[in-house]
Predict the 3D structure of the following.
Amino acid sequence: MNVIWLLLLLFLCFGVLSNGARKNLSSRPAVVNVGAVFTFDSTIGRVAKIAIREAVKDVNSAGVLAGTKLVVTMRDSNCSGFMGMIGALQVLETDSIAIIGPQSSVVAHMISHVANELQVPMLSFAATDPTLSSLQFPYFVRTTQSDLYQMKAIAELVDYYGWRSVVAIFIDDDYGRNGVSALDDALAEKRLKISYKVGIPPETSASQSEIMDILVKVTELESRIIVLHANPGIGFRIFSVAHYLGMMQNGYVWIASDWLSSVLDTASPLASETMESMQGVLTLRQHTPDSDRKRAFVSRWKKLTGGSLGLSSFGLYAYDTVWVLAHALDAFFNQGGTISFSNDSNLSPIGKGSLHLEEMKIFDGGRLLLDNVLKSNFVGLTGPVKFDSDKSLHAPAFDIINVIGTGYRKIGYWSNYSGLSTETPETLYQRPPNRSSANQRLYGVVWPGETLTKPRGWVFPNNGKQLKIAVPNRVSYREFVSKARGADMFKGFCIDVFTAAVTLLPYAVPYQFVSVGDGRENPSYSSLVTSVATGEYDAAVGDIAIVTNRTRIVDFTQPYTSSGLVVVAPFRKMNTGAWAFLRPFSPLMWGVTACFFIVIGIVVWILEHRLNDEFRGPPKHQIITILWYGELSENLGGYGFSFSTMFFAHRESTVSALGRLVLIIWLFVVLIINSSYTASLTSILTVQQLSSPIKGIESLINGNDPIGYQVGSFAEHYLTEELNISESRLVALGTPEKYAKALQNGPERGGVAAVVDERPYVELFLSTQCTFRIVGQEFTKSGWGFAFPRDSPLAIDMSTAILALSENGDLQRIHDKWLSTSACSLESTEIESDRLHLKSFWGLFLICGLACIVALVIYFIQILRKYHHNAAAMGADSTGDSSTSRSRRIQTLLSLMDDKSNHTKTGHKKRRIGRSLSENDKDAEEDDELQSSSSPKKKKKQIRHSTEITRTSE
């Protein structure tokens, strides 16, 4: 039962489908009318007429429309917008469902309005105006490449050869104006420009004299790159006049749009006079990939024309246009579309008349047919046919052709995928896109004048005018730029660099210097650069800093000297103090070190007290031992104080393991501290130490002190705009003398705390002012260059010349000529700082001297006490004459000073024995002294003996 139902269902479905197919086939008309409007007697029209006719034959014979015959009615527009409009109306009267053409962009603009109103798709194989793809003309479909991509190709060609501007000559109609507008946009994307554009009246209305006047004016311009966007009739006349005027000689570059390649493809060989007038010209041709179908059609074409008419890319696009329409109609009928028309309500009020406007009807299936046209996707003679979202053909590409001799040579390709290349676009499509400059390449070109050397692309205008070069009339730092008194001549470092660079250019540069400034103060350099950007001057030469806001309006050359903002401030030397030896350590470091000396002594004493007899005794003795050990550990800790070991012996030695461990670690710490102290003190005493309250630009930003800057410098703008320093803090200074005075006075006396200026000025200033220094780092990086208007080719050539000056050493020689310094040499200052003066050490000598004085005072006090003690014991000797007594006292004092003091351990016993002997023999000695007092020799012995007894008793 289920099988029966299944068979019944299949039968019903098959019947429905069969009826639908028969209904679809039966709904297809026997004939479909299509109109074609173009100029029959034109370069493109002659080829298109044959190509369209052959395409219609192939479509009908291939049965693409499944029994429906495609009929194309052709009308001649005769290169006239009016005639094109009439031709379009004529074909629309025949119920045409589409229009092929027109070839002219001017005619296409007019007919597009009719196509919009009647909803008839219009497929043009030759109208290349980019504006036709706008939303204003929804029923216009371009089946060839747009001038939008052709102009992109020309712009990349100009950029590839390093040219900066072009002259555009165009036919003054929709085709020419809109094409050049697209070129202007494409060049702007590359930072290039059209320096001059001139339109020529369309068709043959332009006389020979008008063309000559236009070209004569072009010869007076700077640019020698000429883009010609015209039609064959005007184009060849322009080439002829240009050849007559010598504009086809060396130095010129001519780039023609695809109108020239279409002529070369269809009418070659041209007359020898015509070919002679355009030798070296570059032109573009719409690229069509090679294929078997294309080669077969070319062979077929030769048979059809007998070789009298060549096949251009426009002929191939015309052939494919018929196939686009055929495939779209087939899809239209497959979707159930029908050929039906309805009256236009907008034409009804007009009524009937001799124009028969009532015959103009709206194609009901126009929108559906248009959608199927835009969905086309097949491979034709021109390659894959597919439309993008903007109704342009997919993967636009052009061949680049160089006219040589009696023909031409292909030098490469351009594609919107990978730019310029010597490989075919089809090969590049198989790789990832690569538009890097290294990947852009073309074959060699034979340029006008039969030269292989790439033209420079510009010359100085041939109008007898010299370049007006602005030069700042400086008041200060005239070593860089200065004006000779009583003459319009300038000299200086910057001027010599400019003149040396100009001499290296491969062409003559007529110029004159123009002084800028009143001579009383430096001019504003920002205003100087602005005057170049506005065209008041052709260039500016001088000490002009390359900064961001200036590069936005002018082009600078390669910097010829480095520059950047630095801070200059007063300073004082730090190594002239008497207490310089204290500076290696901070007060806290000194305090901690001294405390640790005591602490280590106490620790060692605690560890050694119970085990070592030398650490025992009276409290006074123990305190001295602690202090001695701490000092001795310092003396032995490093070789900075190792000389003390020559004078001090080991009074106490450690015996405990813990004591030795602590001492070893402490000696290691002292070694590090002592080495660091020695290194720091050496640096302080031998290297010039500078001190300034200003440490750099950060100190100025955070402070409130006044800051000086040079009049006219960009430093003012940078400090206020970039660093947000109040303008009230800035002080304008005009000369180096004012710099020095303001810095010496300081903020307290109406001066400045520091000066911010560019390094070249500062280096020249410091060459004669040794009491100031650069503090901190250079906080901007820039250079000096010469300013030219934007996109000036002279800026590039001057940059190359400056690099050559740098490489051959001339730039350094010019620098040494003007900026060599000798008055204040940094080397002599450094040598002076390496010498050690007494003033750096008198503090140490003072301490040492005071210690000696104190020690001597204590010593003499002790001697005098001993002397008075002996004198009291020898009071009986005071009798006698005064002179003898005085002499005896002096001898006694000297004897006490010369006596050797015994502090050994046996000294205590000797003193005890001495005291006992003196008591037992005291009476006998007194008797002997009285008896021998009359004899001088005995008296001397007695005195010497009594002195020895006294020493022993002590």
About this structure: The first helix runs from residue 2 to 27. The radius of gyration is 54 Å.
